Amino acid sequence: MSEYLQEVQDHNTFKKQRAAWLLNISENSSLKKSAIDTLRILEMERYTYQWDWLGIPIIKMPEEVMLIQMAIFTFKPTAIIEVGVARGGGLALYHSIQSLCGITPNILGIDIKYFDHTKQSLSPLLDKGVALLEQASTSLLAQASIKTFIQGHKSIFVVLDGDHSHKNVLSELRMLDEILPKNSLVLVADTLLRDVKQTGKVRNWNKFSNPNTALMEFMKGNSNWEFVEELCKRVVLSESPQGWIRKIF
After folding, report:
1. Of the candidates 193, 174, 198, the residue with the CA atom closest to the CA atom of residue 243
2. What is the pLDDT along the chain (249 residues), one digit of tens a residue?
3. What is the pTM of this model?
4. In what order do the strands lie in the sheet with 156-160?
5. First to last CA, the chain
6. What domains appear along the chain, each with residue ranges and CATH number?
C-alpha cells in the first residue's frame, strides 16, 4: 500500500501528465488509423445501437457520451438543442447532466418526425424541461422556435445529428451562425462519415457529401468560429472527430 501511495501524483502534476498523454494520443497517426478501422467494423455491427441512457436507447458511442458530459460540465449551457432526436436517449442524457450540474434542464429536440415510442420514452421529461418540435431543422418555423427558445440565454449547446448531407448540415450551420450568441458550443455529429461507408438503408450522404465536408466549408468562411481542440482531440473512438466548434464573436 505504501508503494502505491508514493506513486499517486498531486493534482497539478496529474493534470500536466494527462495533458501530455492526450497530446501523444492526438498526434498518433497509427492509433487514429486503427480507430477508424475499428469504427468501420463497429458500424457494420450496429454497435452504437446497443446502449441506453436511463432505459432510453441512445445511439452514440460510449466515449462520445462521456465527452458530452465533460462539455456540459465545462461550458454550463443553460439551453441545449438537439437536431435529430431518434429514440430520445440524447435528450435524457442532457437532462441528467444539466440536473447534476445544478442547471435547470432546458432542452429542445427537433426532428422531422416523432414516433410513438420516442414520445412514450420521453413523456416523463416533457413537463420537466424537455420540449419537442416536429419540423425540418432549417425551416422558418424551426428557426423562429430556436430564436424564442434561446432568448435570454448566454450559454447554448447545439447538437446537429439529423440529415447528414452536406447541403443540409451547411444550411444548419449558416442558420445557427445568424442566431446564436457568442460562446455558443456546437457539436457536428457523425463527421466520421467521410471515412466510413454507409451500411443498411441508402442515404443522401456519402464520403463526398457529409457533416465533415459541410463543417470544413463552413469554417473556411467563418472566422467568428473556432474548433474546440480540447474536445476535438480527446476521444479516440469518436463518430464526430473535429466536430466541436465554438462561436468566439
Report:
1. 193
2. 566 677 788 999 999 999 999 999 999 999 999 999 999 999 899 999 999 999 999 999 999 999 999 999 999 999 999 999 999 999 999 999 999 999 999 999 999 999 999 999 999 999 999 999 999 999 999 999 999 999 999 999 999 999 999 999 999 999 999 999 999 999 999 999 988 765 555 677 788 899 999 999 999 989 999 999 999 988 899 999 999 999 999
3. 0.94
4. 130-134, 107-111, 79-83, 156-160, 185-188, 244-247, 225-227
5. 51
6. 10-247 (3.40.50.150)
> Quick one: three-class SS letters along the chain?
CHHHHHHCCCHHHHHHHHHHHHHHHHCCHHHHHHHHHHHHHHHHCCHHHHCEECCEECCCCHHHHHHHHHHHHHHCCCEEEEECCCCCHHHHHHHHHHHHCCCCCCEEEEECCCCHHHHHHHHHHCCCCEEEEECCCCCHHHHHHHHHHHCCCCCEEEEECCCCCHHHHHHHHHHHHHHCCCCCEEEECCHHHHCCCCCCCCCCCECCECHHHHHHHHHHCCCCEEECHHHHCCCCCCCCCCCEEEECC
**Nearest-CA neighbor of 131 among 105, 93, 104?**
105
